[in-house]
Amino acid sequence: MIRIHFSADDIARTRLAAAPSQLAVTTLSMLSLAHPKPTPAGSWHRTVRSNLRHARSTRPLVTAICALDGPVPAFLLSSRQGRTLEDELEQLLSMPRRTLQDNMEHVADWGTLPGPLRHVAEGRREALQTLVGAMRGYYRIAIAPYWPALHASLSADLAKQARTLREGGVEQLLSGLHPRIRWRSPVLEVDSPVDIDHRLNGRGLLLAPGPSAFPSYVPCDPLDDRPTLHYQVGEDRTFQNHAAAHEGSPPALGKLLGHGRAAVLEVCAEGGSTSRLAERSGLSASTVSEHLTALRHAGLIDTVSVGKTRHHTLNDLGTQLLRGR
Fold first, then answer.
1. Distance CA 297, CA 103 (A)
2. In the predicted model, what is the mean pLDDT of residues 24-32?
3. How far apart (Å, rounded) are the C-alpha atoms in residues 40 and 97?
4. Which pTM value belongs to this model?
5. What is the C-alpha separation between 20 and 298, in angstroms, rounded?
6. Who has the most CB within 10 Å: 61, 81, 100, 293?
């Protein structure tokens, strides 16, 4: 059992995340690969595991995260969500070296650091850049094809929790997060195989939703100025159904088009501007623009100008490709 102890100041400073974090969801999904459980999203595990066999630059990072005996580095569970994954990765790259090293020292207290993380702890700039590149590659394989469904599900839960907070206050919010999370004032209990007490000490708690297919995550870094509880969304059927319906298809389409381009093609199904598609896919606007140009030249999407904005949608050929993958 993990027990999070609140003071009156902590209750006053408890808040909801502004939006789902693509970086946090990406990292939590790696933990899910390490400890898979029977779930309606089991097809996601099979699809991603199969596709990772061909991702040589990404496998060492996934192996390192899965091998951790204790907490995950806080910088891989961003509490300062950007609009896209690229925003969050840029924040990571600009993080002061001392902050990274302090974070890694806390992780090292729980066991030996695997190679990719040990090099970051030593302050090697190239190691951090390699880690960011691996995160980007893993996201394109494991999360980007599913992000529209994930974003819809997690955003809907945030809206629901915001209503609870407005109408019932913080304690009612904490009481209804998840069946495995219980509020016994002034302690929030989270079911866990480890037994630990965590004291917020006036910092408050940030509540961020995560898919039910991936594990929840409890803050335990005493140096973190914004402790975040990544709780599971209780009824994450949108993602589960999406994963089951498309089992095996993201790798096939990814091999044909490339994973980034396949992700952009998928988010084009809902249509939108370049910036909107970048937000949904987690890629930078410049990268999405390049992919859109290639997809348009291949005859898979149509682009029209509305004022100063360009709007992109699938055409018949693109729709057939997406559905018949």
1. 46
2. 88
3. 41
4. 0.73
5. 33
6. 61
